Amino acid sequence: MVNRKRKRRIALVALLAFVLGTTAFAYAAGMTFGGATNAGHAGQGSGAISGYNVHDIHYTLDDTDPSTITKVVFSLTPNTATSVKARIDSGAWVTCSGGTSPWTCILTADTSDAGSLEVAAAD
Which of 49, 47, 44 lies closest to 122 in space, CA to CA? Predict the structure, then answer.
């Protein structure tokens, strides 16, 4: 009689293990991806930053106060930039307009302090 109870317990434990194992497998089998096109992308790479040549720079002085620069116009080579910003002597960056060369930047700077023009461009 004791031997029968032991066999039933072993059979019950084996049945429970089987049920739990197949249930877990069914859940795991249900998790699929839609294929490589839906799985997303990841990666890493590097490339050289080529930069631009800034040329044909022209400054415009204020009509009433010629000690103030109000605008700067310049060209970029290559002519591929889509976003350009500029500043004079670490002043505030301003967004330039143009889309193609030349680019026009409306800004304010004192001519007595003007020592450098910085241009940031990206395509």
Answer: 49
With a CB cutoff of 8 Å and minimum separation 6, the contacts of 77 are 52, 53, 55, 101
* pLDDT per residue as tens digits for the range 22-45: 555 554 445 555 555 555 666 677
How is residue 19 annotated by DSSP?
Answer: H
What percentage of the chain carries pLDDT values higher than 90? 37
At 119, the amino acid letter reads V
**For 89, left (φ over 0), alpha (ψ -120 to 50), or beta?**
left
The whole-angstrom separation of Cα 105 and Cα 110 is 15
Compute the distance between CA of residue 3 and CA of residue 14 in angstroms, rounded to an integer: 16
Is residue 104 within 8 Å of 71, Cβ to Cβ? yes
| 83 HSE (CA, 13 A, CB side) | 3
Q: pTM for this structure?
A: 0.61
